[in-house]
Automatic annotation (TrEMBL), chain A:
GO annotation, biological process: anaphase-promoting complex-dependent catabolic process; cell division; positive regulation of mitotic metaphase/anaphase transition; protein ubiquitination
PANTHER family: CELL DIVISION CYCLE 16,23,27, CELL DIVISION CYCLE PROTEIN 16 HOMOLOG
UniProtKB keywords: Cell cycle, Cell division, Mitosis, Repeat, TPR repeat, Ubl conjugation pathway
Entry annotated with the keyword Repeat: yes
Xref: PROSITE patterns: TPR
Cell cycle as UniProt keyword: yes
Chain positions covered by the region annotation Disordered: 577-610, 626-646
The protein, known as: Uncharacterized protein
InterPro entries from the UniProt entry: TPR-like_helical_dom_sf, TPR_rpt
Biased composition (Acidic residues): 633-646
TPR repeat residue intervals: 350-383, 384-417, 493-526, 527-560
UniProtKB/TrEMBL annotation, chain B:
Protein name as catalogued: Cdc23 domain-containing protein
Repeat (TPR) residue spans along the chain: 349-382, 383-416, 417-450
An individual GO BP term: protein ubiquitination
InterPro entries in alphabetical order: APC8, TPR-like_helical_dom_sf, TPR_rpt
Keyword entries, A-Z: Cell cycle, Cell division, Mitosis, Repeat, TPR repeat, Ubl conjugation pathway
GO cellular component: anaphase-promoting complex
A Pfam family it matches: TPR_8
Chain ranges of the Cdc23 domain: 7-254
Length: 646, 533
C-alpha cells in the first residue's frame, strides 16, 4: 500500500489506459509533463498524459507510426467490446494479455467479462499478484465482489479508508473520472450496504471532493437525503469548481434541496436557461418539479412532471414526484396506467413497485399497497419514498407502533428530509403523546420551516396544549406558506378548518365563522365543519341557526355522535331559552289577522296535520335511540370538536 | 386558399340555421369542420399551434352543449376567456357535475341515497368565478349570468353569499327569470322577503321597464309567504290588467288562493288556465292537490288520466297519478309514483313533502322524516314539511325535536292556529307549562276555540293558579262538557255549593261524559245539595 500512495495513477481515469488514446503518440510527445508524476508502475505500455479526452472515432487515422502486433490486437479487442461482440473481445483480449502480461490488458479483459456478467471470471482474472499494484484492476476487482454480494471482501480490496487521501490533490487531466473518486464512491456503497450511513456519507462526500465529476456519489448524497439541508449547501460551497466547470456547478446547484437558499437555486436555473439554453432539459425541469412539490403546489408540479414524461416516458427521477402528485390529487386512473406501463417495461425497478404501491394506496387497498412498497424497498433499500409509503400503510390502518418504527427507520436513513420526522410527530399526536410529538415536529421544523403541513401540525400541538395564541401563530404561518396552494388541497382545507377552531376557542366567533365558511365554500361537504359551525352559532346564541347547521351535519353523517349531541343541547336551549319563534313573529303586525283567519279549518287541509295525534301512542324506536347516542361524549365543549389533523 | 375562407364563411352562415332548426348533430358536424378549416392568415408562424378564433370555438362548444356532451363543451372552451365563453363553460361544468351526481346516487331514498353525494365540480366552479369577478368588472348580460351561476352554486352549498350574487345578477340583467326564482329561494321568511323587495325597489335599475320584472317577483314572494295580504290581490289585479293573457299571473293567483286555503277559487282559476292552454302540465300537481283536498274524486281521476296521456314521464304527471292513488288509499302505489317523479327530477319540491305524508299514513316515521328533510333541502319555505317533521318526531315521542320543527312551521305561518296548538302541546309534554300557557294564549288570540280555553284552564290548574283556571273553564262552558264537571268540583271544594250543584246537575243533564264522570257529577250534586240544606 505504501508504494501505492506514491503512485499517482489514481488521478487518472480509464481513458488514460484506453488503447485508443494510448496510440496517440504525438499528443503525448507534444505536451511533455513531469514524467515522474505520471509514471505508472506495473504497466509497460501506459502513456499517461493527454490533453484531450475525446474519443476519436477513427484512431487509426491519427496513428503516424505503424502499430505493433499487441496494439493491433488491442484495437480489435476494444472495438469488439464496444460493439458488444463479447466472444471476440474475450478471445482477442485473452491473446493480448498472454502476449504482454500487462495489467491494463488484464483490466480490459476483465471489463469484457464484467460486461457479459461473468463477475467471478473477472474477479479471478484480477486476483493475480501481478495486478495488485494497478489501481484500475483493484477498482474493477472490488466492483466484481460487490456484484457477487461479497461486500466485506470488496472492502478489504478497497481499504476502509482512502489510501490516497494524503497525496497531493491533482486535477485529473484526461477528462475522465478519477479512479480514486470511483473507489471512494464504491467504498461508500459498501458502507451504505452495511448500514454504516455516516461513513457512507463521508465516502460519498470524499468522492465528490476528489472529483466533482463523480456524479454517482453526488446523486447518492442528494437523492437519499444523506445530508441535512444546510450541510448540503455548505458541501456544495466547499467544492472546488474551475472556471470551465461553471455548468457543472449550476447543474449541481439545481439538484440540492429546495428548503433554503431559493435565491441561489432560482439564479442557477435562470442561468441554465439563458446561458446554456437548458431550460427544457429534463433534469432542470425535474428540479423545478422538486421545488413545486416542496411548496405543495401539486397541480403545477404534476404539469411539469407530465411535460418531462411526454419526452421521456420512463424518466425514473421524475416518477416519484409524479406518483406523489397523482396520489395527492386523486389521479387514480393515471396511476393505474402508469403502474401498468412500468410493470410491463421495467419489472425489476424499484420505482415500478412504488407506482403499484401508490396505486393501491390511492384506492384504499392497504394490504396490497404494503406488499408492493415492501417489494420496492427490498429492491432498493435506500429508496425513501418506498419506506415512507410502507409506513403510511401502517398509519392508514391505525397500527401506530409499526408505523412509528418504520417512520423512525426512514428518519434514520434519510436525515436530509423533514417528512419522516413530520409523520412521526403526527403518529405521536394521534396517540396523544404530545411531548414526543412536539420533539419530532421540532426536529422536522429544524430541517424545513416552510412546509404548510408541518406548520399545521405544530399548530395542532399547541392547540391540544391549549396554547391558543401559539396555535394561532403557527396556523397563520401555515396559511402564509400555503398561499399558493390549490384551494382544494387537503392541507389548505385543514389549515382553514383549524384556524376556525382556534378562533372558536378564543371566542372570536366572527373570525371563526369566516374560516369555516371558507372551508365549506370550496371544501364541499364535511359533517365536522357543519357541527363546528353549529357550535359557534350555539355559543353566539343563534339557536335556530345552530339547529339548522347541525341538521346539515347530520344529513351528511347521520350517526355522527358529536353532531347529534350538540343538536340535542341546541334543542334544549331552544326549549329553555327565549322563544325565538314567539319573538320573531310577535314583531309582525299582531292582531289584524282576525279577519283573514275566519275559515282556516273549514276545509280539510292538505297537510294532514291531524294524523300526528292519532299516532302518538307509537313506541319510541330506533331513530330515537340513534339520535340519543353519544350523550356522554361531552361535558366540555372544547374537548368534543375534533381538530383536523391531516 | 380562398376556398378555405369561402368554406368558413358558408359554414358560419349555415350553423345558426342548423342550430335554430334544432338539428343538433348536423350542427355539431359543421362546427367541427369549421374549426378544422386551416387558418389562412399568412403571418401565422406555427400553423399547427394556432388556435381557431374564439367565436368559432364558442360555436363548436354550443353544438356540443346541445348534444349534451358537457365535458367536451368544457374542454372546447378552455382557451376562451370572454364572459360569454366563461359562462357557457362553467355552466356546462355545473351540469356535468350534476349529471354525474345523479348517476352516482342510487334510487330515491334507498340506503345509498344519503343525499351526501356532492357535485364534484362545485369548488372548481366557485374558484373560477371568484377569479373572473376579480379581474373582470364590466357589467354585461353575460357577467350577470355568471353572477347567476355563482348564486346557484353557493345556494346549493347553503352559503349566505348566494343572495348577494343573485341580486347583482337581476340588477344587471333583469330578464333572467331563473335568477329571480333562485333569489326567491334564498328568502326564507316574510321579513327577509320584504327587506329584499324594498332594497331592490330603491335601486335605479328598476325605475323603468325592468320594474315589471320586480313586480312579478313581488307577486311570487307574496303568494308564497303572505298569501293573505290584500296587497297581493291589488298587485295581481294591476298586472292582469296590463298583461291579461299571461298564464303566469293566473297561476300565481291560483297558488295564492291555494295557500290562503281558498280552494274553490283556486279550482276555478286552474280550470280557466287549462281552457286556454289545454296541454300545459306545469303546476298541474298543485291543481290536483286542490282537488284532493276538496275530495273531488271524479275530476281528479279524469285529470290524472289526461296528464298521463300527454306525457307519462313528467314529474308533474307522476305527482298527479300518485295523488290519485293516495286518494284511493293505495299509499304504496302513491309512494311508487312519487319515487318516479323524483327519479325524473330530484328537485321536484312537492313530491318530497307528499311522499312524507304517504309514509306517515303507512306509519313509517323514519322514511317520512327523511322525505320531509329532503323537501326542506329543496325548499326551506315549505311549512307543511316542517309541520310534518314535527308530527313524525312527536310520533316517536321526541317532543324536544318536534318543538323546534313546529316553531319553524309557525314562523312561516304565524296566523295558523294549528302551529301554535302543536307547539303548546310539545311544551306541555316537556313540562314547560309556563311556555305552554303562553303559546295557547297566542293561539287563542287567533281563534277563540273552546279547546284552547279548556287546555289553558287545565294548565293553570297544573301550575296551581286555580282562579285563572276557573276563569278559562267558565269561558269554554259551551264547548267543553268536562268544564262543567271541573267547575262543579272546584265550587264544591271552595264552598260554592249552589254553583257546584248547578254545574253538576247540568253535566248530568247533558250526559255526554263517560259513565264514571256522570257518576261523579251525581255524587257532587248530592253532596252539594246536602251542604246547601
Amino acid at each position: 500500500m505504501a508504494s501505492l500512495t506514491q503512485s499517482p495513477s489514481q488521478h487518472n481515469s480509464t481513458l488514460t489506459i484506453s488503447p485508443l488514446v494510448s496510440n496517440r503518440r504525438q499528443d503525448f510527445f507534444a505536451t511533455p509533463q513531469n514524467p515522474t508524476l505520471f509514471n505508472t508502475p506495473g504497466s509497460n505500455n501506459n502513456l499517461t498524459f493527454l490533453t484531450t479526452s475525446t474519443f476519436d472515432p477513427h484512431p487509426l487515422a491519427n496513428a503516424a507510426a505503424p502499430l505493433s502486433q499487441a496494439e493491433k490486437l488491442r484495437l480489435w479487442r476494444h472495438d469488439a467490446w464496444m460493439q458488444h461482440h463479447y466472444k471476440t473481445a474475450e478471445y482477442v483480449g485473452d491473446k493480448v494479455l498472454a502476449l504482454t502480461g500487462d495489467p491494463n490488458d488484464a483490466f480490459w479483459l476483465a471489463q469484457v467479462h464484467y460486461a457479459s456478467g461473468n463477475y467471478v471470471r473477472a474477479r479471478q482474472l484480477l486476483l493475480g499478484k501481478q495486478f495488485d499494484a494497478s489501481v484500475s484492476c483493484r477498482y474493477l476487482g472490488a466492483l466484481c465482489l460487490t456484484q457477487l454480494g461479497q461486500w466485506d471482501e470488496a472492502l478489504d480490496v478497497l481499504g476502509e479508508v482512502n489510501p490516497f487521501s494524503d497525496a497531493f490533490p491533482v486535477k485529473n487531466q484526461d477528462g475522465g473520472i478519477k479512479l480514486e473518486a470511483s473507489m471512494c464512491y464504491l467504498r461508500g456503497r459498501i458502507f451504505a450496504r452495511q448500514n454504516a450511513f455516516e461513513r457512507a456519507k463521508e465516502c460519498y462526500k470524499e468522492a465528490v471532493m476528489v472529483d466533482i465529476k463523480c456524479f454517482e456519489a453526488f446523486a447518492e448524497l442528494v437523492e437519499n437525503h444523506l445530508m441535512a439541508p444546510q450541510e448540503e449547501w455548505e458541501f456544495l460551497a466547499a467544492l472546488t469548481f474551475d472556471d470551465d466547470d461553471e455548468l457543472v456547478r449550476l447543474l449541481y446547484t439545481t439538484r440540492l434541496n429546495k428548503y433554503m437558499h431559493l435565491g441561489q437555486y432560482e439564479d442557477a436555473a435562470q442561468r441554465l436557461r439563458d446561458e446554456y439554453s437548458l431550460g427544457d432539459n429534463c433534469d432542470v425541469m425535474l428540479s423545478r418539479a422538486d421545488l413545486l412539490f416542496v411548496q405543495c403546489k401539486f397541480q403545477a408540479c404534476l404539469e411539469v412532471c407530465e411535460a418531462v414524461l411526454r419526452r421521456d416516458r420512463f424518466n425514473f427521477s421524475v416518477l416519484p414526484n409524479y406518483l406523489s402528485c397523482l396520489h395527492e390529487l386523486g389521479g387514480k386512473n393515471k396511476l393505474f396506467l402508469m403502474a401498468h406501463k412500468l410493470a410491463e417495461n421495467h419489472p425489476t425497478s424499484h420505482v415500478t413497485w412504488l407506482a403499484v404501491g401508490v396505486y393501491y394506496l390511492s384506492i384504499g387497498k392497504i394490504p396490497e399497497a404494503r406488499r408492493y412498497f415492501s417489494k420496492s424497498s427490498l429492491i432498493n433499500p435506500n429508496f425513501a419514498q418506498a419506506w415512507i409509503g410502507f409506513a403510511h400503510t401502517f398509519a392508514a390502518e391505525g397500527e401506530h407502533e409499526q408505523a412509528i418504527s418504520t417512520y423512525a427507520t426512514a428518519a434514520r436513513l434519510f436525515p436530509g428530509t423533514h417528512l419522516p420526522n413530520l409523520f412521526l410527530g403526527m403518529q405521536y399526536l394521534q396517540m396523544n403523546n404530545l411531548v414526543l410529538a412536539e420533539e419530532y415536529l421540532a426536529t422536522s421544523y429544524s430541517i424545513c420551516s416552510t412546509d404548510p403541513l408541518l406548520l399545521n401540525e405544530m399548530g395542532v400541538i399547541h392547540y391540544h396544549k391549549s396554547d391558543l395564541k401559539k396555535a394561532e401563530f403557527y396556523f397563520n404561518q401555515a396559511l402564509a406558506a400555503a398561499k399558493y396552494l390549490n384551494a382544494d388541497s387537503k392541507a389548505w382545507f385543514s389549515i382553514h378548518a383549524n384556524l376556525g377552531h382556534v378562533y372558536r376557542r378564543l371566542g372570536q366567533f366572527d373570525k371563526s365563522l369566516h374560516f369555516f365558511h371558507q372551508v365549506l365554500r370550496v371544501g364541499g361537504t364535511d359533517a365536522n365543519i357543519h357541527s363546528a359551525i353549529g357550535l359557534v352559532h350555539l355559543k353566539m346564541g343563534a339557536v335556530f341557526q345552530a339547529i339548522d347547521t347541525l341538521h346539515d351535519a347530520l344529513a351528511i353523517a347521520p350517526n355522527d355522535p358529536v353532531a347529534s349531541d350538540l343538536l340535542k343541547r341546541a334543542l334544549e336551549e331552544n326549549m329553555n331559552g327565549e322563544n325565538e319563534a314567539l319573538r320573531r313573529t310577535s314583531s309582525l303586525k299582531p292582531r289584524k289577522q282576525r279577519h283573514s283567519m275566519q275559515t282556516p279549518l273549514v276545509h280539510k287541509s292538505r297537510s294532514r296535520m291531524e294524523h300526528g295525534n292519532s299516532l302518538l301512542s307509537d313506541d319510541v324506536n330506533l331513530l330515537a335511540n340513534d339520535l340519543h347516542k353519544g350523550e356522554d361524549s361531552s361535558d366540555d365543549d372544547d374537548a368534543i370538536m375534533d381538530i383536523e389533523s391531516d | 386558399m380562398s376556398s378555405h375562407s369561402d368554406l368558413r364563411r358558408a359554414l358560419r352562415q349555415a350553423l345558426p340555421l342548423l342550430s335554430d332548426a334544432k338539428l343538433y348533430q348536423s350542427a355539431k358536424w359543421a362546427a367541427e369542420l369549421l374549426n378544422a378549416v386551416p387558418d389562412p392568415e399568412p403571418f401565422a408562424t406555427e400553423p399547427l399551434s394556432r388556435l381557431p378564433p374564439e367565436d368559432d370555438c364558442i360555436i363548436l362548444a354550443r353544438t356540443f352543449f346541445d348534444c349534451k356532451e358537457f365535458d367536451r363543451c368544457v374542454h372546447a372552451l378552455k382557451p376562451c376567456l370572454s364572459a360569454e365563453a366563461t359562462f357557457l363553460r362553467l355552466y356546462a361544468m355545473y351540469l356535468s357535475g350534476e349529471a354525474k351526481k345523479e348517476r352516482s346516487s342510487e334510487t330515491v331514498l334507498s340506503a345509498q341515497d344519503a343525499g351526501g353525494t356532492p357535485n364534484l365540480q362545485m369548488s372548481a366552479i366557485v374558484r373560477e368565478l371568484e377569479a373572473f369577478h376579480k379581474t373582470n368588472k364590466t357589467e354585461s348580460a353575460h357577467t350577470a349570468l355568471l353572477h347567476y351561476l355563482h348564486g346557484v352554486v353557493l345556494l346549493k352549498q347553503k352559503n349566505a353569499g348566494a343572495q348577494e350574487h343573485l341580486e347583482k345578477s337581476v340588477c344587471m340583467f333583469p330578464y333572467n327569470w331563473s335568477a329571480w326564482q333562485e333569489l326567491g329561494a334564498t328568502l326564507a321568511t316574510p321579513d327577509a322577503a320584504q327587506a329584499c323587495v324594498a332594497r331592490l325597489q330603491s335601486r335605479p335599475e328598476f325605475a323603468g321597464v325592468p320594474g315589471a320584472m320586480l313586480q312579478f317577483f313581488e307577486v311570487v314572494l307574496a303568494q308564497e309567504l303572505l298569501p293573505h295580504s290584500p296587497h297581493l290581490q291589488a298587485q295581481l289585479d294591476e298586472l292582469t290588467a296590463l298583461y291579461p293573457s299571461f298564464a303566469f299571473l293566473k297561476v300565481q293567483r291560483a297558488l295564492g288562493s291555494y295557500h290562503a286555503l281558498d280552494y274553490a277559487a283556486a279550482e276555478e282559476l286552474f280550470d280557466e288556465i287549462l281552457a286556454t292552454d289545454p296541454l300545459r302540465l306545469d303546476d298541474m300537481d298543485t291543481y290536483l292537490n286542490v282537488l284532493y283536498v276538496m275530495e273531488k274524486r271524479a275530476k281528479l281521476s279524469h285529470l290524472a288520466r289526461f296528464a298521463a296521456s300527454v306525457d307519462e314521464f313528467r314529474p308533474e304527471t307522476c305527482c298527479v297519478v300518485a295523488n290519485y292513488h293516495s286518494l284511493k288509499g293505495e299509499h304504496e302505489k302513491a309512494i311508487m309514483y312519487y319515487r318516479r317523479a323524483l327519479a325524473l327530477n330530484r328537485r321536484c319540491l312537492a313530491a318530497w313533502t307528499l311522499m312524507g305524508h304517504e309514509f306517515v299514513e303507512l306509519k313509517n316515521s323514519h322514511a317520512a322524516i327523511e322525505a320531509y328533510r329532503r323537501a326542506l333541502d329543496a325548499n326551506v319555505k315549505d311549512f307543511r314539511a316542517w309541520y310534518g317533521l314535527g308530527q313524525a318526531y312527536e310520533v316517536l315521542d321526541m317532543h324536544l325535536y318536534a318543538l323546534y320543527y313546529y316553531q319553524r312551521a309557525a314562523s312561516l305561518r304565524p296566523r295558523d292556529r294549528r302551529m301554535w296548538q302543536a307547539i303548546a302541546h310539545c311544551y306541555e309534554k316537556l313540562h314547560k307549562y309556563a311556555e305552554a300557557i303562553q303559546t295557547y294564549e297566542k293561539a287563542l288570540g287567533i281563534d277563540e276555540d273552546p279547546l284552547f280555553q279548556y287546555k289553558l284552564a287545565t294548565l293553570y290548574e297544573l301550575v296551581g293558579d286555580e282562579e285563572r283556571a276557573s276563569e278559562y273553564m267558565h269561558m269554554c262552558l259551551d264547548g267543553e262538557a268536562n268544564a262543567r264537571l271541573w267547575l262543579a268540583r272546584y265550587e264544591l271544594k271552595r264552598g260554592g255549593y249552589v254553583a257546584a250543584y248547578e254545574y253538576a246537575n247540568e253535566f248530568g243533564i247533558a250526559n255526554r261524559g263517560l259513565a264514571q264522570d256522570v257518576e261523579e257529577a251525581r255524587g257532587i250534586a248530592r253532596e252539594a245539595k246536602k251542604r246547601i240544606v
